[in-house]
């Protein structure tokens, strides 16, 4: 099958450090190629892929301080994809609503995976404008603010089975991984670790938009003796970081659409203590891959139950539910349904 993948331009694919959507697009793209499909990846030129790379600019937007209007780069990419639409059997977009107008006006089947929150009024307005557009959700909970969209499937994220693996290291701390922002709950993680009497290691990105929040709310907490701030880490650093943790703390306070860090921890055999928000009950299996709690008190109480969890079973659940192969197979099923319903002729064979 000839497949176009449209990736965000803010980070390379895969991202060098933090970057959830770009990491998922990379995992999907590489697995589709491994399955024998002919994939073209529309992304920044510093991306690394076994697919055909259609470089939309030299480097990721986040790395280029000269960019004044990032929207212009997205509009150009959408135009480039539309001009080449006839080359593909299916077009798969990961850049929200930007391409919908053009893609609806051409004949190649397409779908859009929505990777973010949908509980803002502007999102309901814009997405309901495209009532016939096929959308994929990354959790069932993500759909709730706009249930009437043309949802064709929920496809949970996955990643390569061997990207992150358990390491033979001693567990000596709690881990916090991801991004520092109000909704991610780092302040809660610091308090939970303090009450449990366990060190907390923080491997997180601080966006410029969250710098004031960090300086005002988080920085004063970082001087506590049980907290160590590491900063952003790469995939190569994650196995040891996560394997060395008793648990990943995920005390979120927002409708998390998926939460990639949960399955990254599971890949390392590390259980997760997560607040029951958004997708968490769909990703986590309470009492098996960690504990789903409602508040800080329950999180602290769950700490005493961590030894009851089998880290080998945590890893096994990752292998069963969250591999890139499973994700790619789910998407290929969607692609085939959309192509068939579009009345396209039989797809030409692709050499395997």
From TrEMBL:
Residues 18-123 form the Glycosyltransferase subfamily 4-like N-terminal domain. Residues 168-308 form the Glycosyl transferase family domain. Coiled coil: none annotated. SUPFAM superfamilies: UDP-Glycosyltransferase/glycogen phosphorylase (SSF53756). GO terms for molecular function: glycosyltransferase activity. Keywords: Transferase. The keyword Transferase applies. The keyword Transferase applies. PANTHER family: BLL5217 PROTEIN, GLYCOSYLTRANSFERASE. This is Glycosyltransferase family 4 protein. It comes from Teichococcus oryzae.
